[in-house]
Structures are given as C-alpha cells and as structure tokens.
Amino acid sequence: MARGLNRVFLIGTLTARPDMRYTPGGMAILDLSLAGQDTLWDASGEKEVSWYHRVRLLGRQAEMWGDVLERGQLVFVEGRLEYRQWERDGERRSELQIRADFIDPLEARGRETVEDARGQPRLRHALNQVILMGNLTRDPDLRYTPQGTAVVRLGLAVNERRPGQGPEGEKTHFIEVQAWRDLAEWASELKRGEGLLVIGRLVNDSWTSSTGERRFQTRVEALRLERPTRGPERAGGSRPQEPGRSVQTGGVDIDEGLEDFPPEEDLPF
Predict the structure, then answer these.
(1) Quick check: helix, strand or coil at residue 163?
(2) How far apart are CA 3 and CA 159, in angstroms?
(3) Strand partners, 202
(4) Do residues 76 and 11 touch, judged by C-beta distance below 8 A?
(5) How far is CA 239 from CA 139, 218, 224, in A?
(6) In 3D, which of 151, 184, 182 has the Cα closest to residue 253?
(7) Over the range 199-227, which residues count as b (16 or more CB within 10 Å of their CB) and which as e?
(8) Whole-angstrom Cα distance, residue 98 to residue 212?
(9) How many Å apart are CA 115 and CA 108, to the nearest integer?
(10) If DSSP codes are grouped into helix, strand and coil, which group holds residue 186?
(11) Can you say how many angstroms the Cα of residue 244 is from the centroid of all Cα atoms in its chain?
C-alpha cells in the first residue's frame, strides 16, 4: 500500500467575514470562504480559472483568528482533505472538506483582486495546490468528450495515521481525481490497488440530478501523476515501471464539459 500523503495549500481572499460557532462540547469551529483565480495553460494558451473553497479551522487557532479576519483579507491555508459520509432520508451522502492545520493572514500589497458578479473579492494569481499519495479504489474510467478530448476519472484512497493515537487514529479518505488529454490516456492503463502520486488543483463541480436536485462535488484536477515504485514487490509478474507524465493541461476543459459523466456524490453546502 502506498504511503499516505494528503496536503492542501491555498492562498486566496476571504469573500466574507468568517463564521464562528461552537460544538456542544465547547470546541470552536471557524468556517472561511476563500476565492482565487488559477492561471493555467492548455493548447489554446493561457487562461484564468476562478475557484471558491470553504475551509474549516478548529480549536484554539479558530478562536485566535475568529475576531481578527475580515472580508477581503489575503489568507494562506495549509491543511488536508477530510472525507466523511452519512445517511439522510435513506440515501448515502458524503463530503470532502478542507480541514486547515494552519492559517496565516498575508500582506495584500501589490496583490491584484477582482470582484465577481456578487461583489465578492477574488485574488488573481492565487495558490491552489493539492498533493496526494494513495491507492486506486477501482480501475480508471476513461472517456472522450464529443470533441474527442480524453478524460479519466480515478478513485483514490489516502490513508491517514495520527501519531500516538493507535488504531483509532487511522482513517481513510476517499478522493475523486480527474485528468485530461495525454495524462488521462496514460492513467487509463493503471489498475485498481496501484499506488499513485497526484499533484493538482482542487475544484468544485455542480450539476442538476435527474430529480431536479442541485448537487455538488469537490474533487482534484490532476496536473501531474506519478506511479511510485515498490522495489521487490514489482518483481516477477509485475509490469515494468514507467515514469509518470507532467502536462500543463489546465485541468478542466472550460469550453467542453461532460454532461454524460456527472459526479457521483452530493455535498450538503
């Protein structure tokens, strides 16, 4: 099994003042909404792609920053993706949440922001990076858009072990990954159970289900994939190691889309 790695790095602007609340046990919970624009490149050139992410900070840090941060503040976030699932009305639901381990306000001098259609500040040339290492939960699903662009969907299981917590500190996070073009075709040759290193950006999907319900999913758009070697484990019947590929595809094809390839889970946002 691949070593678990689960890190998220964001730099963006707060679209509103953070929301502070407390659990019944007295733990502080601070929810932040960050916005930014990624600069990406594909065959047609440079593009700016906007993003909006919610970040949750717990405990003493939440209390420390709850009365300090204001709308428009530039913020750095270091954290991880936290997977949880539950049932509602007999239907399985899940969400992928950004859990901050550390945040820090940044100086905004020289940084350019724009206002979106709702008047929210959004940082240009933001930071939106995810680094994951885990194992594939299923064989890759390769498809092609009507324009002939390859796209693959991958399910990644990332194991987390908290030091000093024993078996109770072990948890698995299930994360959906998507890759495009040459990277997608390379990834389509992988098999369930194989280890994979993913470097990419965090995005949110939204769509309308067949019942008319608005649904959402957070996933990772891969910009680089690497297959770890496992030394003696690959001897014998294993196929030879091939290097991963790094392609700056810009993740999503903004002008295409996959209406017939919707995400599978909805988020309670």
Answers:
(1) coil
(2) 7
(3) 220
(4) yes
(5) 16, 33, 21
(6) 151
(7) bbbbbbbeeeeeeeeebebbbbbbbbbeb
(8) 27
(9) 15
(10) helix
(11) 20
Beta bridge partners of 79: 8, 100
10-residue stretch averages of pLDDT, the chain, 269 residues long: 86 96 95 94 82 95 93 97 82 86 92 93 96 96 92 94 65 94 95 96 83 82 91 42 39 40 33
Residue 47: which of 259, 244, 221, 218 has the closest Cα? 221
SS3 category, 256: coil
DSSP string, 90-153: TEEEEEEEEEEEEEEEE--TT--EEE-TTS-EEETT-EEEEEEEEEESS--EEEE-TT--EEEE
A 10 A CB-CB count for 32 gives 26
Q: How far apart are CA 155 and CA 139, in angstroms?
A: 8
Enter the tokens of residue 95.
């969400």
Considering Cα of 258, then 114, then 130, then 110, what sign does the dihedral take? positive
Structure tokens at 127: 């930071």
For residue 197, the surrounding DSSP H or E stretch is strand 195-208
Cβ–Cβ < 8 Å for 66, 107: no
Taken as a whole, the chain contains a residue count of 269
Record the pTM. 0.81
Residues paired with residue 22 on neighbouring β-strands, in sequence order: 28
How many degrees, rounded to 5, is the angle at CA 16 between CA 218 and CA 13? 70
CA–CA gap between residue 87 and residue 71 (Å, rounded): 34
SS3 176: strand
Q: Which tokens sit at 159?
A: 């194991």
